[in-house]
């Protein structure tokens, strides 16, 4: 009889142990992710600016401890604790991610809705072409793996104050605002200009992009210049404003409205940003 009671005790204890283990497994796997990108950086903090502690390969299982600013704090390689970009974990399209893949980039098509922007000599609105160019840029940046956020995706009104706020709220690593220039007299000016307000990283981004404009775009390059514009002034995010041609110049506008030129701008911005992020510590 005593032996039967002891056996029952062992059975109950075993059942409880199995049940507890099952619960722990469920909790573990419900808070874990499997890496699908070829290789993923594990950083010391939840942003691209933090140092790399190590890497994990495709197929690695990561236990998620915390989520912050679209980054995951994980236990990697069974013992290493660090942060990974949440949007890259399940990305099966990026085989060899560059550093830009870990960046959050806010793309701002200038004007929109009630704010038409400048007008061409044939009555075309700036807001139409800033959106076309910005969308092409966004598509190319997404292809690198970067997390991309648009301030507008349609012909809608977005206040000037809200645009940098969107970058701040999303903890962006870069804010790029697209515009078309206009001169007082039609056909009196020509070219592209890259503006920054804050020295340091904003100027570095403007320079990296402008270097690509200079070697790629058919329009004259007016260089990197200081610009006191609200959308790049009232923010702590590295920000630039790009004037990609004069809309009231007939020769410039023939390029601006061309998909080929829009693609050249998009390729130049993407390459410039890729080069910029590659040089960041």
UniProtKB/TrEMBL annotation:
Molecular-function annotations in GO: N-acetylmuramoyl-L-alanine amidase activity
GO CC annotation terms, alphabetical: outer membrane-bounded periplasmic space
Domain of life: Bacteria
SMART domains: Ami_3, SH3b
GO terms (BP aspect): cell wall organization; peptidoglycan catabolic process
UniProt keyword annotations, A-Z: Cell wall biogenesis/degradation, Hydrolase, Membrane, Transmembrane, Transmembrane helix
Stored SUPFAM superfamilies: Zn-dependent exopeptidases
Transmembrane segments: 9-29
Pfam family of the protein (one): Amidase_3
Protein name per the record: N-acetylmuramoyl-L-alanine amidase
Start and end residues of each SH3b domain: 30-92
InterPro entries in alphabetical order: MurNAc-LAA_cat, N-acetylmuramoyl_amidase_3, SH3-like_bac-type
PANTHER family, A to Z: CELL WALL AMIDASE LYTH-RELATED, N-ACETYLMURAMOYL-L-ALANINE AMIDASE
């Amino acid at each position: 009889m005593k032996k039967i009671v002891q056996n029952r005790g062992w059975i109950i204890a075993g059942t409880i142990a199995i049940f507890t283990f099952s619960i722990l497994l469920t909790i573990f796997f419900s808070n874990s992710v499997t890496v699908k990108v070829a290789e993923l950086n594990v950083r010391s903090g939840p942003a691209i600016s933090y140092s790399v502690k190590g890497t994990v390969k495709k197929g690695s299982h990561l236990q998620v401890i915390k989520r912050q600013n679209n980054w995951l704090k994980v236990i990697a390689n069974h013992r290493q604790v660090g942060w990974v970009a949440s949007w890259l974990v399940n990305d099966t399209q990026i085989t060899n991610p560059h550093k830009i893949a870990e960046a959050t980039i806010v793309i701002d098509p200038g004007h929109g809705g009630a704010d038409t922007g400048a007008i061409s000599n044939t009555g075309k609105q700036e807001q139409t072409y800033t959106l076309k160019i910005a969308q092409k840029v966004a598509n190319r940046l997404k292809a690198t793996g970067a997390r991309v956020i648009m301030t507008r995706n349609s012909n809608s009104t977005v206040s000037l104050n809200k645009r940098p706020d969107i970058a701040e709220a999303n903890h962006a690593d870069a804010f790029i605002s697209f515009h078309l220039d206009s001169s007082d007299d039609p056909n009196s000016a020509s070219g592209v200009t890259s503006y920054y307000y804050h020295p340091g990283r904003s100027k570095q981004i403007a320079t990296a992009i402008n270097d690509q404009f200079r070697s790629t775009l058919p329009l004259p390059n007016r260089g990197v210049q200081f610009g006191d514009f609200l959308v790049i002034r009232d923010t702590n995010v590295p920000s630039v404003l790009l004037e990609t041609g004069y809309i009231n110049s007939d020769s410039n506008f023939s390029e601006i409205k061309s998909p080929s030129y829009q693609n050249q701008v998009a390729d130049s911005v993407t390459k410039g940003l890729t080069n910029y992020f590659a040089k960041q510590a």
